[in-house]
Amino acid sequence: MRLEQPNCWSEHGALQTVLVCSPSVQSIPSLQVAENVQWNAPVQQDVAMENHHSLISVLKQEGVQVIDYALYLDLVTRQLNEQLINRFFVRDLACVFGNTILPGIAGTFMRRAEYDHVHKLLGNWFPETFTKDVTEGVKALEYGDVLILNANAVFINIGMRTSLESVEQMMGHIFQAGFTEIGLISLPRRADTLHLDMNCNVAAEDVVIAKSYMYYLPVQVVNKEGIKGYDMTEKFLHRHGFDIYWLDKYETIPDINFLNINPDTLLISKQAHKQMLKSHPKLKNKRFIEIDVSELEKAGGGIRCMTLPLVRK
Ligand SMILES: NC(=[NH2+])NCCC[C@H](N)C(=O)O
C-alpha cells in the first residue's frame, strides 16, 4: 500500500486519502437489541454492506485513495474486530491535525477494542507522526467531537464522549501541531447530540451548518498561553471566516453529518434534505453527491463518522 504522510488543515480541502472500515458481520435483529446497544433501529448486515460499497465506490470515483484498515489486521485481531458493531465509525478513533495524527480515547468501554486495533496500525504506518504516549492519563476524547476549522482554529465539544480534563491534557499537542486557537463548547449530553459533528459541520470554506440552539451557547477560547476569553458561537465562527447557516428543522444524521470531498463537492446521504442545504446562497452552486447509507445511519452516525481523512490538500 502506498501511504502519503498525513496532512489535514481543514474540513473541506481536496480529500486524497481516507480511512474506512466495513460494517461488522453482525445484523442487529430487533429494536430491543438496537436500543440496548444505543442504535436507532435494527440493521440488516447485507444491506449495511451494500451501503458501505456505495460509499467507497463513490469516494474512489472521486479519485480518493480508500484504505479499509481491517484488511491490515492480523487474523486473530481481525476475527474479533469483525464482530464490533461500531467498527465503521472510524472518525472517532484518531484525527490528523496538520501533519500530526493524534489518537482518540473511547469515551465508552464498548468501543475500546477498535481504538486499540487502529492505533496499532497507525503506529506501524506512521512511526514518526503517531504515538500512543500522548494519551497517557487521557480518559475520553472521541474525534467526532472535533472540527478542524482552518489552519489556525479547532472547535471541540465537551460532551458525552469527550471530557474537559482529557481535552486539557491533549491541547498542548494540538498547539504543537501548528494550530493557534481552540474553541471549546459543551453540547447537551444526549444521543441526538452525541458528538459535535451531529450538531454542526463545515459545509464550505466559509460556511458552517449548525442546529440553531447553538446560537445560545458560549465558546471558551484557548490559546497556547491559556484561556483567552469567551465568544458566543456565532462570533467565534465569524472570527474564523465562517457564515453560519442556522437550521431550525433537521434530520440530525443525514442533514449534518456529511463529508466534504473537495471545496466544490459535498457527499451527502440520500436521506438529507438537499434542497434545504442548497438554499444557502453560498451552497447553491455546490456539487452534492447523494448516496444511500440509510442502513448504516441506523447505527447512530453518518458519512462524516464513517470516514477518517488522512490526507487533504
Ligand atoms: N462521529 C460520530 N458522530 N460518531 C457516531 C458514533 C455512533 C456509535 N453508535 C457510537 O455509539 O459510538
TrEMBL record:
It holds the Pfam family ADI. One of its GO terms (biological process) is L-arginine deiminase pathway. GO terms for molecular function: arginine deiminase activity. This is Arginine deiminase. The lineage of its organism: Bacteria, Bacillati, Bacillota, Bacilli, Bacillales.
